[in-house]
Amino acid sequence: xxxxxxxxxxxxxxxxxxxxxxxxxxxxxxxxxxxxxxxxxxxxxxxxxxxxxxxxxxxxxxxxxxxxxxxxxxxxxxxxxxxxxxxxxxxxxxxxxxxxxxxxxxxxxxxxxxxxxxxxxxxxxxxxxxxxxxxxxxxxxxxxxxxxxxxxxxxxxxxxxxxxxxxxxxxxxxxxxxxxxxxxxxxxxxxxxxxxxxxxxxxxxxxxxxxxxxxxxxxxxxxxxxxxxxxxxxxxxxxxxxxxxxxxxxxxxxxxxxxxxxxxxxxxxxxxxxxxxxxxxxxxxxxxxxxxxxxxxxxxxxxxxxxxxxxxxxxxxxxxxxxxxxxxxxxxxxxxxxxxxxxxxxxxxxxxxxxxxxxxxxxxxxxxxxxxx
Length: 373
Prior knowledge:
With 373 residues, this protein is of the alpha+beta class. 38% of the residues lie in helices and 14% in strands. A hairpin with a 2-residue loop joins β6 and β7. α11 packs across α12. The longest helix has 19 residues. It is globular. The two termini are 44 Å apart. The N terminus is likely disordered.
């Protein structure tokens, strides 16, 4: 239940007790004042909304960091171990580096001690897009790793992918008819009308911030990863910390990629409860990422997203195979298999990613400024 680190990590603090929260530091000697003393931090595993907003404020500082600036603090926002210790540490000294960094991040976002109850201003902050305006070419390049390009380019073997060949289906109902009775019952429940959610398509455009680069989507990613790892390994501090680190990495990754998202919202509160990120290339569409909050996990959102993806793939003459990728557990591989997605070791032989380029909607990247944006 504790983190321990030495100065090099740099989990250190100034034992002299000087308050640096609002100080203007002009040289890096500030960090040399701290003794080579480890700090032991007890982690609180409660995932409150205020804690999540503080963590997001830290991540936003990492997005905003300019390596050419003279800000001696900015570099440390890329250290996510510091972020987790700062936000979830119960006994972190107020004059420590993590606490100072967090105070600056909170102040820059105007969060204060309590961020709840701000009404429309709070909603505006939650849905403000903070992603980099990454160009189409760079987004495509960033997408390849998660699509399993290492295997179809012959560099190394990846994990098996779960594939569904849709060439012989003429409608989604034909696919549903092939499924076990329990799966059919589940899909009948997985509708916007019965589960009170809405679905909207949002394109990821070259030269623009990703449409899911907001706190509202970040919250879904974190809750999803914490829930997933807790279910896999049991509730523990180690699983919690690993889930937070994984969530931050995945959030940054998905917001740098190409494709589009299907955004799920609660119909009454108009709050984002999940999203599915898809990328299509050549004859294959990849269900690249899926994340939902704890509420959506009980409302069959994943099942709706799979059926919707299958239906659109059957209707699209350009697509032969739906790829749901590798799974984090045998249980999830088995779940995909129940819906017709076969786990294939040599999946590039069945999923064509190489005969053509990425798919885009008409005018999806028309506003991109220059080829190298």
